Amino acid sequence: MIPRRTFVVAAIAGALTASRTEAQPAATTARLGMLMVTSLSNPPPMPELDGFMTELRQLGWSEGQNLTVERRPAGNLDDLPGLAAELVKLNVTVLFTAGPEATRAARGATATIPIVMIASTEPRQLGAAGLARPGGNLTGLTVGQSELVGKRLELLKTAIPRLARVAVLWDVPRPPDDDEILKKMTAVAGTLGLRLHYLQLQGARDFDRAFTAAKQERAGALLLIEGPRAVANRAQVAELALRHRLPMMGAFRQVVEAGGLMSYGPDLRDLFRRAAHYVDKILRGARPSELPIEQPTKFGFAINARTAKALGLTIPPALLQRADEVIE
Questions:
Q1: Domain check: are 49 and 177 in the same one?
Q2: Treating both helix axes as pointing N-terminal to C-terminal, what angle do 234-243 and 207-216 enclose, rounded to 10 degrees?
Q3: Global pTM?
Q4: Which of 4, 151, 177, 325 is a good FRET partner for 267, with 20 to 30 A between their CA atoms?
Q5: How far apart are CA 8 and CA 47, in angstroms?
Q6: Is there a domain that residue 2 lies in?
Q7: Which positions ≥6 away from 54 have C-beta within 8 Å?
Q8: Which residues, including other chains, have CB under 8 Å from residue 160's CB and lie 6 or more apart?
Q9: Number of other residues whose CB lies within 10 A of the CB of residue 283
Q10: Is residue 34 in some structural domain?
Q11: Do residues 123 and 202 share a domain?
Q12: Closest Cα to residue 238, out of 221, 213, 259?
């Protein structure tokens, strides 16, 4: 049975939460650099980012008073290295990166400025020595995709018992090949009797092509392996799923809010709030090499009942009862 709310993974979570009530207003001025992928043509609201800034204020850091924030949104992954170099030239005190490619770009631009990452899948591939003691200038939070992707396939099969083919839309710049996520999916798909067809996303403009290819492969559903592009362009992704009549399962509820069918994964808003505590600790003198990298502590299962109705699907009542959120 899928857990409904909270996993406690790292003991540091309590210490980070405690710092919120103990923090006193900071007297020094700091400069925060923010690097992330977004949809520049039609940026969606980002309440999780608002929560990050709110948490920083509660920890004693107010933009325009004792904190300067340098925001560098990237419309394309190719823009990230240049924007990261720009932030390094500004001599920011700490870099906050959303997504593995933003983190990789920051790591390529500096080996000394502290980096707080969020929503990265495998910290070791980004240069961390380990979770407990990452070493170097990198710390932050992961999303644990490889541990959860099997559960998403199981949920799809439960929602659509006759499901036989699933298109996997891989929103990463490199092919999966020997990726741990691929191994998990292949094993679970075999036990469920599912045939997987992988679609590699090269750029935001490829979404339309990918959904067309999924229908050509006679996929009965689509599993979205989100990267920052899919989250930033979630309205477009959800619209394409409805247009092609493909039930879509993702990791983050933001995609479900936009019109996807289901999601099971970590709470992005919670991850952003927790990232603010890492930034606060570093601004107060902590070394990133000594701050353990955290795995998710909150997970949620969301279903969009409106989308199910539009697709002509009847979600089993037992599955609806297991959901943390049902969007009517």
A1: no
A2: 30
A3: 0.82
A4: 177
A5: 24
A6: no
A7: none
A8: 220, 221, 247, 313
A9: 22
A10: yes
A11: no
A12: 259
Q: Given the DSSP bridges, would you call strands 262-266 and 299-304 parallel, antiparallel or unpaired?
A: antiparallel
Report yes or no on 244 lying in a domain: yes
Scanning the chain, the segments in alpha helix (DSSP H) are: 12-22, 47-58, 80-89, 100-109, 145-159, 180-192, 207-216, 228-232, 234-243, 253-258, 268-283, 305-310, 317-322
Classify residue 234: in a domain, yes or no. Answer: yes
Give dist(CA 206, CA 190) in Å, integer. Answer: 28
Residues 201, 168 within the same domain: yes
Which residues have CB under 8 Å from 147's CB, separation 6+? 184
User: What is the number of domains present in the chain?
Assistant: 2
Kindly state whether residues 137 and 25 are assigned to the same domain: yes
Nearest-angstrom CA–CA distance, 70 and 56: 15
- Residue 246, Cβ density class (10 Å: 0-12 exposed, 13-18 middle, ≥19 buried): buried
Mean pLDDT within 289-298? 88
User: Concatenated DSSP letters for 17-47?
Assistant: HHHHHH-----S-EEEEEEEE--SSSPPP-H
pLDDT per position as a tens digit, 231-285: 778 888 999 999 999 999 999 888 899 999 999 998 888 999 999 999 999 999 9
User: Which range is most confident: 98-107, 109-118, 130-139, 195-204?
Assistant: 109-118
